[in-house]
Every structure is written in C-alpha cells, then in structure tokens.
Amino acid sequence: MYIILVYDIEEKRVGKMLKLCRQYLNWIQNSVFEGELTEVKLKELLYKAKDIMNIDKDSIIVFKNRQEKWLDKQVIGKEKNDLDNIL
After folding, report:
1. Binding residues for Mg(2+)
2. Helices 11-24 and 39-52, interaxial angle, to 10°?
3. By C-alpha distance, which of 43, 64, 52, 44 is closest to 9?
4. Would you place residue 66 in the very low, low, confident or very high pLDDT band (cuts 50, 70, 90)?
5. Residue 84 has pLDDT above 60, yes or no
C-alpha cells in the first residue's frame, strides 16, 4: 500500500525519528515521508516509532492508499526531494 507519514516530534527526538522513517520510506519534506509498504512493515515502523516518541507530546499521522496512482499530488514551490531523479 502507498503511505504518506507526517510527524510532529519534539526537537530532541527528531533525529531518531528521521533516521527510523528513512529506513522504511522516502523523505520528501521536513517531517513528511512517502512510499510503498506492506501492512507488516507499516506495523513494524509504527511499533518502533512509538518507542521514540512521547505519546503525550508528539504525533504521527499516516495516510494510506492502495496505490500511488490513485493519489493526485501537486507540489507548489521547490520540491525538497524529487524522487523522479532516483535510478
């Protein structure tokens, strides 16, 4: 399934969360990631993320879609990480 993950994490934990999310998804903008994951890999990512975050102060939002082709994405301004250039 196609995933968009967005997080709002206190500054002292941002580095750990960034490193974790980059293991599973493509970084596209500050605190925003996208990519294809199986349900098992998504559960694994969220399980590890819960160990990093403070549930009372931090948040993660996950948008799920069956396939990327069903998502109409529009970027206005400079795209931070253009995935079309990856071979």
Report:
1. 8
2. 160
3. 52
4. confident
5. no
For the beta sheet containing 26-29, the strands, ordered from the edge strand earlier in sequence to the opposite edge, are: 26-29, 32-36, 2-8, 59-65
Q: What is the mean pLDDT of residues 2-29?
A: 95
Distances (CA, A) of 24 to 4, 74, 75, 78: 11, 23, 22, 24
Position 79 pLDDT exceeds 80: no
Dihedral of alpha carbons 51, 43, 38, 29, sign: negative
- Using the predicted structure, report yes or no on whether residue 8 has a pLDDT greater than 50: yes
| Sequence ranges of the binding site | 8
Which pTM does this prediction carry? Answer: 0.81
Where do the domains of the chain lie, and which CATH numbers do they carry? 2-67 (3.30.70.240)
Q: Are 86 and 35 in contact (CB under 8 A)?
A: no
